[in-house]
Amino acid sequence: MIGVFEVKDRLGERLVLILKGYPCSWGKCIFCPFAIEQSTNIKEIIEVNRSIVKKALKLIESKGYMRVAVFNGSSFHELPYDSIEKLAPIAEGRVFEVEERPEYVTKDSVKFIYSSYLPTKLIIRVGFEVFDESLRNDYLRKGIPDSEVLRLSNLRNALREEGMHAEIWSYVLFGIKGVPEKAVVESVRKFKELLDGVIAVRYHKYLPSHPEERPVSEKLRKVLEANADLMDWGGEEWTIVGK
Predict the structure, then answer these.
(1) CB 230 within 8 A of CB 11
(2) Domain ranges, ordered by start, for the chain
C-alpha cells in the first residue's frame, strides 16, 4: 500500500502518504505485515519516497489539503534523512501526523519535528494496541511496558506547557483472536483518559503465521463508533504490496 491516498472520513479530507522504509527496529509484533514492503536498499527507499512526496505536493497544490499523515510501516524517525527532509513543505502550515514507537517520542524529538516542519498541529500515533500490559507484550509482543504509556501521558502535558500544539494518539486493535472485546473497550476508555485520541483498527490476517481474525460484535462496533476518534476497517485500498 505504498503511495499517496486521498481520504475523506471523520477527520475530514486529508492526504495519507505511505512511504517505503527500513525494517522496523523492533520487528517482533505477531500481527504486523509491513516487513513485506520494507527494504534495506537506501537508494531504492529514497527514490520511491521522493516520487511519493512529489505526487503529494502536486495534490496539495491542486486541491489544497490541510491535513497530511505520513506512515512508513515502522517509526517516522527510522526513515532516511533524505525522506524526512523532503517532507518539510508538506507539513508546514498543516495538521501533520506521523507514527512512532514510544521510545522515539521524547521532548527533543517532538521539538525537532515541530520546529523543523512548523505544522499547525502535530499528531503522533503510537501503536500501543491494547491497554492490558500482558496482552500487549506477552501475546502481541509489542515490547512496550505500562511505564511508557504513563511517560507519554506526562510528556503530552509537558509539551502543552511549552506551547507546542502536539498530541499523542494511540491505536487500539480489535477483531484479533486472543484479545477479548472487553479488553478493547477498556483500552479505548483508558487511552482516551491518558492521551489525546484513539484510532480503532480492524485487524486483518495477511500472513499464514499471523493470528486468526475474530468476528466483531454489534455491541463492540457501536462502542467503538461512539468513542474512537477514527475507525479504520481496512479494505482493498490498504492491500499490502508484495503479499
Answers:
(1) yes
(2) 3-238
- What does the alpha-carbon distance between residue 222 and residue 155 come to, in Å, rounded to a whole number? 31
Q: What is the distance between the alpha carbons of residues 96 and 119, in angstroms, rounded to a whole number? A: 6
For the chain, 243 residues long, the average pLDDT of each consecutive 10-residue run is 93 96 95 90 97 97 97 95 97 98 96 93 97 98 98 94 92 98 98 97 94 97 97 64 41
The reported pLDDT for the residue numbered 235 is 58
Residue 243: its pLDDT value, please?
Answer: 38
CA dist., res. 175 & res. 28, Å (int): 20
> Which cell numbers hold the place of 20?
517505503
CA atoms of 161 and 94, how far apart (whole Å) = 21
Q: Give the model's pLDDT for residue 240.
A: 39
Question: CATH 3.30.930.10: does it fit domain 3-238?
Answer: no
The contacts of residue 45 (CB under 8 Å, 6+ apart) are 20, 21, 22, 39, 79, 80, 83
Question: DSSP labels for 125-140?
Answer: EEEEE-S-HHIIIIIS
Specify the pLDDT at position 35.
Answer: 85
Residue 84: which residues within 8 A CB-CB, separation 6 or more? Answer: 76
Do 73 and 21 touch, CB atoms closer than 8 A?
Answer: yes
What is the model's pLDDT at position 237?
46
Joined together, the cell numbers standing for residue 182 give 472487553
Neighbour order of strands in the sheet with 230-232: 3-9, 12-18, 67-71, 95-100, 121-129, 166-174, 197-202, 230-232
- Residue 171, all three cell numbers: 491505536
